Amino acid sequence: MEINQISIYFHWPFCQSKCPYCDFNSHVRTHIDHTNWLKAYINNIDLWKEKINPSIIQSIYFGGGTPSLMETRSISVILEHLCKNFTLSEDVEISLEANPSSVEKKKFREFSSLGVNRISIGVQSFNDKDLRTLGRTHSSKEAIEAVDIANSEFLNVNFDLIYGRQFQKILDWEKELTFAQSLGSKHLSLYQLSIEKGTAFGNLYSAGKLKGLPNQELSKKFFLTTYKLCKNNNFYSYEISNFAKKGFECFHNLNYWKCGNFISIGPGGHGRYKQNNSRYSYHNVKNPENWLDKSLKKINPIFEIEKLSKLEHFEEFILMGLRTDKGINLKHVQENTGYEINMKKLNYLKNFKFISLKNNNLRLLLKGKIVLDKVIQEILI
Ligand SMILES: C[S@@+](CC[C@H](N)C(=O)[O-])C[C@H]1O[C@@H](n2cnc3c(N)ncnc32)[C@H](O)[C@@H]1O
Ligand code: SF4
Questions:
Q1: In the chain, is it the N or the C terminus that has fewer CB atoms within a 10 Å radius of its CB?
Q2: How confident is the model at residue 325 (pLDDT cuts 50, 70, 90)?
Q3: Closest ligand to 242 CA?
Q4: Extents of the domains making up the chain
Q5: From the CA of 322, how far away is ligand 2's center (Å)?
């Protein structure tokens, strides 16, 4: 593998309860054997050792599921093992996702002392009624406490909010977001509620029983309100749903959007890497128990490695890159994939102020961000 810089993602597939909107690979189990899970992660790190070295690890991300439910010992052993076996960049970013429950808040200090330097808390809302509707087990007060504790332990704190919720009013969202921005964290992930197939919300929606969702016009207003407030409060919109104070952008996620190299360890995790001038994509086995079983037996739990065609690579550059505020460099895309975007289409989108195109740099303007999927479709078809 010709890799110079790499990111590593660890997927922890368990949660205390399943939120009705969530289609992440997350499961509720009454018993989890933490010792075996740790062994499985370590075995997988060893599987990757020869392939990755001598690359430099730029970022490590514990995501889920709810990785703050992992034993702190597991995080410690994984980080030590990475340090012993790889070169970590001096400014390596180490992120961990957390829920704001009391058990996990107590662990924040320990996570920080182990080297985790960025925490991402799933707050979702500061409205208790909406938190219950979203199936969350924490209150708004607990979420505020979690953000406060996180701010005292970490310089780099993100929290997630979901907006465009059932029966939510623009004015209430304005107040909620303004409050969120006053809490002192340096990064906000702000997602419009999306209704995913196969989730509890998805099933209710199909049965016509999910009431009060915003229509297209209201969704647009939510989006524009979000952008306006973030701009006014100096949260720079560096990605369509991610806002940060300057210098606090999430390196790990930016690497995804820039189509960098990343490996994933854990059930369902997918990775991308470059080898012999081709880009490869792979997936881990999704079922947690199957993944664990294979990993403990030192059988590679990757079930599919696929060489991306130049066209797929090109599409990925567009899909990912246009999410970022910096956009994509068309020359770079052409050099890497051999494909060029039809200039007629770009000029059309430019004339209608959906995109900006300067010195080979293509990026979305606000009008284009509102209809991101349509712009991408227009470019790719
Ligand atoms: C893996 S989860 C975060 C970590 C943690 N398990 C939690 O929920 O607090 C990533 C984030 O995606 C967002 N998310 C998940 N499903 C969503 C959906 N259907 N619509 C909008 N946002 C969603 C939530 O904000 C969530 O915090
Ligand atoms: S949103 Fe977070 S806590 Fe809820 S089920 Fe998904 S991963 Fe688990």
A1: C
A2: very high
A3: 1
A4: 5-255, 330-381
A5: 27
DSSP state of 27: B
Does residue 204 register a pLDDT over 80? yes
Nearest ligand 1 atom to the CA of 63 is 1
Please choose, from the candidates 28, 6, 14, the residue with its C-alpha nearest in 3D space to the C-alpha of residue 267. 14
Q: Which two tokens stand for residue 282?
A: 């792979």
| Long-range contacts, 100-107 (Cβ 8 Å, 24+) | 100/138, 100/142, 100/143, 100/145, 100/146, 100/147, 101/16, 101/137, 101/138, 101/142, 102/142, 103/69, 104/66, 104/68, 104/69, 104/146, 105/142, 105/145, 105/146, 105/149, 107/68, 107/72
* Residue spans of beta strands (DSSP E) within the chain: 5-12, 56-64, 87-98, 118-124, 156-163, 187-192, 236-239, 242-244, 262-265, 270-275, 278-284, 302-307, 328-329, 355-358, 361-364
β-pairing, 118-124 vs 87-98, is parallel
**Helices within 160-215 (DSSP H only):** 170-181, 200-206
Q: What is the pLDDT of residue 51?
A: 81
pLDDT band per the 50, 70, 90 thresholds, residue 304: confident
Q: How far is ligand 1, taken at its centre, from the CA of residue 332, in Å? A: 32
Q: Is 222 helix (H, G, I), strand (E, B) or coil?
A: helix
Residue of 11, 21, 131, 256 best suited for mutating to test ligand 1, as the one with most atoms within 8 Å of CB? 21
* CATH class of domain segment(s) 5-255: alpha beta
